[in-house]
Amino acid sequence: MAEIVLQSISHSYEAKRGALGEPAPGRPAPTYALRDVELRWRDGGAYALLGPSGCGKTTLLGIISGLLQPTRGRVYYGDKDVTALSSRERNIAQVFQFPVIYDTMTVRQNLAFPLRNRGLGAAEIDRRVGHIAEILELTEVLPMRATRLTADQKQILALGRGLVRQDVAAILFDEPLTVIDPHRKWLLRRKLKEIHKQFHHTLIYVTHDQTEALTFADEVVVMQHGSVLARGTPEDLFRRPAHTYVGYFIGSPGMNVMPCEALRQAGGARARVGAYEIPLPATFEATALGGGLELGIRPEHIVVLGEAEAGGLPVSVTAVEDHGRFRIVSGRLGDHRVKIRIGQASAPESPAGSPAVAVGGTVRVRFQPEHICLYRDGRIVAPIVASIVASIVASGGSSAGEGPP
Amino acid sequence: MIEKTRSNKAWLLILPMTIVVAFSAIVPLMTVVNYSVQDILGPNTKVYVGFEWFRKVLRDPELHAAFLRQLLFSFSVLALELPLGLGISLVMPRRGWAVSASLVVLALPLLIPWNVVGTIWQIFGRTDIGMGGAALVKLGLHYNYTADRVDAWLTVLVMDVWHWTPLIALLCYSGLRAIPPAYYQAAAIDGASGWSIFRYIQLPKLKNVLVIAILLRFMDSFMIYTEPFVVTGGGPGNSTTFLSQFLTRLAVGQFDLGPAAAFSLIYFLFILVFCYVFYTVMNRVGQG
Fold first, then answer.
1. ipTM
2. How far is CA B74 from CA A340, B215, B245, in A?
3. What pLDDT digit, counting tens, does each position of A187-236 carry?
4. Confidence class of residue B74 from pLDDT cuts 50, 70 and 90?
5. What was the pLDDT predicted at A397?
6. Domain ranges of chain B
7. Residue A89 contacts B, CB cutoff 8 Å
8. Which residue in A34, A49, A65, A257 has the most C-beta neighbors within 10 A?
9. CATH number attached to the domain at A259-381
10. A113 and B183 in contact by Cβ < 8 A?
11. In Å, how far is A83's CA from the nearest CA of chain B?
């Protein structure tokens, strides 16, 4: 086991290896699946690689595992340059989107297969297979044909083929819960967490499902169009998304983003959105203010004011979706769409009673200043969070771009 | 509860299909059944003879010989074409222009009418003007498919392999292409050798395709008629007279409709039973 480092990885499925750079005259530039990715995966960490379909996350996984050779850049496991090594030599394990099992073998033979291929003795193979089967609760089905397992058991078996090799550098998951029934998903996810606690393997988990990513990982890497947009703990990504896209992508519904202008006034900093002014926290004084900004606020952080409360911004309600424990209100603030998440009963912030929220009506709302983020060109300028700065530095400044001065 | 709507008019919907099947299969088959239990002496004179023809046909030593010859031929064809077709599909290109090129080349023998295939090989094997036959003779071999039983057999066999191996190769190729890449990737990660990949991934995944290929080739080769008829005419002697040719001689040559009908039914039942048993066994094997 070792730290995994990706150094300026670029990949194009069209270009020849090492041939990236200037395209030949008269030929179109190759399209990149990945572009200058810099990442460092701590040994023993649980990571999620989150992004929409086609953002390059599976490509990145293939490059880590050695199934793909990057067009440019280097992959290190610890100090060792493994860029040119095959999957087998890199000694990683991978669980695929649908369960890959060897149909004609029993569960026991499936688990023993990677060990047999590496020439281990029969006694040692038996011992390890028995041990892992015990942990994965597969002992009872060991003599069964692998095809007779349920989908989630098959996926556990696929994971087991990685775990029997005790020295794997990392276990990679490529959307492993896609074909699993919803009610078995959480079981499998819990099992993964247990295994992580027990073995301390580095786990890298690719998904487009934010719930999976946020519940599984210690740290989430968000990708878009072949580059890393942001990385951070689930908490960071939710509270202070480094990029408006991350704000949209994480959270349900995503962050409200609207163009604004930040002004410094006698009463403190304010953001002007259309005809309305919204107070900003005092800490924003120090940061670059001005025009051309975007204001981001989570639907959870907009409070609907009660009858008795004065002030607030008028939002005309266009739709209300009932989600059981909460409601999502869609509305318009001036020209801008806004989504608000409110509780089913009266919000604690408005003791005056449940505000009347009806389609066609207008509610008055307040943006909680401490949860407002400001963006310029999609990247966060305020507030500045220490961990985000750290991640920008760690990833060579390519992920979050130029920070504020 | 939702009540299901019941209407007997639905029977009308399957009527067209029933009529088509009746005329294409049931009526002709019943005519054969009718012939098989009668002795037809002339256009209007026929006698009911019961199972007499079946008894006679089953005891006919010439038919026994043709039947064994047929079995040997069909199994030889399968034994040659399956490994060869599978092997070709494994080495066929996977991407680029070579895919289309190899597919077209492979499909060519399948596109040639059967009697033309026979004619091609009949000429190809001739020792005076045929490229193959003349070349063998030039090499000093005593090759003559019109006189030598073994040569005749080999010629018909090689012709069938040439004609139908591409079908198996194409079936296997499509089966191989349908295997998701994740299986190969998992095998690479598990450190599997090339043989292991074939044994544990490709072969199991090709099982269904191979079952279809075996059934198709068995049925087709068991009913082979045109090509050997054109090349050897069943000779020399009876050495390449397979079942259909035997049947044709009985029905059309000698106009023994009764025995020919009885034999047709036995022939039909044998193929049916063989395919059923084979298919069932393969399905059982699949379920473990």
1. 0.73
2. 74, 11, 15
3. 888 888 888 888 888 899 998 888 888 888 888 998 888 888 888 888 88
4. very high
5. 40
6. 83-241
7. no
8. A49
9. 2.40.50.140
10. no
11. 15
CATH of domain B83-241: 1.10.3720.10
Question: Are residues B183 and A100, on separate chains, in Cβ contact within 8 Å?
Answer: yes
A65/B288 CB distance under 8 A: no
Report percent pLDDT > 90 for chain A. 7
Q: CA nearest A103 in B: which residue?
A: B204
Q: What DSSP string runs through A96-121?
A: -SS----TTSBHHHHHHHHHHHTT--
Determine the residue of chain B that is closest to A67 in CA distance. B185
pLDDT of A47-90, one tens digit each? 998 888 888 888 888 888 888 888 888 898 888 888 888 888 88
Q: What is the pTM of this model?
A: 0.75
Mutation target vs B (from A63, A65, A110, A117; most B CBs, 10 A cutoff): A117
Which pair of structure tokens corresponds to residue B138? 């030039």
Q: How many CB contacts within 8 angstroms connect chain A with chain B?
A: 56
SS3 assignment, position A345: coil
Burial class (CB in 10 A: 0-12, 13-18, 19+), A216: buried
Please write the tens of the pLDDT for every residue from B86-109: 999 999 998 888 999 999 999 999
Whether B96 contacts chain A with CB within 8 A: no
CATH for the stretch A4-101+149-238: 3.40.50.300
The pLDDT tens digits for B9-33 are 888 999 999 999 999 989 999 988 9
Which of A13, A94, A98, A129 to probe by mutation at the B interface, max B CB count within 10 Å?
Answer: A94
Which residues in chain B are contacts of A94 at CB distance < 8 A? 185-186, 189
Judge whether B186 is closer than 8 Å to chain A, CB to CB.
Answer: yes
Please report, for chain A, the start and end positions of each structural domain, with discontinuous segments joined by +. Answer: 4-101+149-238, 259-381
Query: Which of A96, A107, A154 to probe by mutation at the B interface, max B CB count within 10 Å?
Result: A96
